[in-house]
Amino acid sequence: MLVDGPPGGYRLVSSEDGVLIEAHDAEGEMNALQTLRQLLGPGAFRAAGDKPQVIPACEVVDHPRFAWRGVMLDVARHFLPKREVLRWVELLSAHKLNVLHLHLTDDQGWRFEVKAYPKLTEVGSWRDDSRFGDRRSAGMKGRPHGGFYTQDDLREIVAYAAARHVTVVPEIDIPGHSQAAIAAYPELGLHGGGVWSDWGINERVLNTEQSTADFYKVVFDELMDVFPAEVIGLGGDEAPGHDGELVRQIARHILRGGRRPYGWDEVLDSGPLPAGTVVASWRGVEGGITAAREGHDVVMCPEEFVYLDYRQSDSPDEPIPVGTVTTLEDVYAWEPVPAELTGDEPGRVLGAQANIWTEHLDSARRVDYAAFPRLAAFAEVVWSPAEKDPGFVQRLREHHLPRLDALGVEYRPLNGPHPWQRLPGVPGFPR
């Protein structure tokens, strides 16, 4: 049954007569079912075993604050097998998050099968080594790393996510972070070289030849054939010395394909952007403010609040500590809409996403540790009204951490890492 209100909204009534759900739309129905699961308690989050049968009598009327409630998962630096991506879809759905942004390519690996250019995965999907810890002082692991998703794999992920009302947004990064592609097809680059085994900003970027733009138009055509999402990521970040014309060409190509280009906030520096471009503001909030004032839609993801690979405390026990300290409380206190936006400008903020870069997260267990429980705080920020609940941490401890336990999520305990979650002797680069 439909109810009035914003998309994704619902009304749930529990009484002696049973449970009544009224939803604005199909996504609202899914959100209501996730609320019902929460009311049933931690046992409802287990894959098997006795399920709870009793829930409290209540009425819940709710809807999301933002349309874009996302997570960027970097599967380029360290590949996550398909089963782990499917698991992440489940985790997003359980937290009423509805966008999974997959960072599919970078200097360190190409993860998307392109039938027109098979060497992108034959050559570009693996590297012969990986830095273990910060590049300024750490050694190497001494073993290859790689993997990629076939187009059938990705169609399966897309369908699995769609059934849970999660949109999968793909990203092919250009013109920087492209060494894996250049290793496969050297004519794309200004310099040669293999798939990169280090971290940081690589000075080797794509060249500005028209043939390179034509190459990537074919790549994006295959990407758009696999991913039905309205928004298609083209990167655009950290490309030293590049003039931006390739970004503009691919942005226009995406628009001609009936989609919307989505780039990191450096795309604002590449010249006038085509109408319809969506900007991800990661270098603070300034990019988002500029984009909104120029008439572009914005996804807020400033590194100081929602980069979940950043260290969670200043304790020496934090494994491979990088970035600034970003605590659970910091994430929860964040407000996604900059106060500087006025008039109609706040309406340009589609929502926000948390970014999980994986240079130093080389397994699903390490990703769990970095993401949770901070991702639970983020989920509440993008769902709920701007006012904060002083009881959030207590609710998390008493009610939600047991749900994560039931799901098998290896989160960071509130009082610091377990002994087996530490990596003593592996240097980071804290700021």
From TrEMBL:
Keywords: Glycosidase, Hydrolase. The keyword Hydrolase applies. GO terms for molecular function: beta-N-acetylhexosaminidase activity. Residues 66-240, 247-385 form the Glycoside hydrolase family 20 catalytic domain. InterPro entries: Beta_hexosaminidase_sua/sub, GH, Glyco_hydro_20_cat, Hex-like_dom2, HEX_bac_N. GO terms for biological process: carbohydrate metabolic process; glycosaminoglycan metabolic process. It is an enzyme of class 3 (hydrolase). The active site is at E238 (proton donor). One of its GO terms (cellular component) is membrane. Pfam families: Glyco_hydro_20, Glyco_hydro_20b. Its EC number is 3.2.1.52. Residues 6-63 form the Beta-hexosaminidase bacterial type N-terminal domain. It comes from the Bacteria. It catalyses: Hydrolysis of terminal non-reducing N-acetyl-D-hexosamine residues in N-acetyl-beta-D-hexosaminides. The keyword Hydrolase applies. PANTHER family: BETA-HEXOSAMINIDASE, BETA-N-ACETYLHEXOSAMINIDASE. Belongs to the glycosyl hydrolase 20 family. This is beta-N-acetylhexosaminidase.
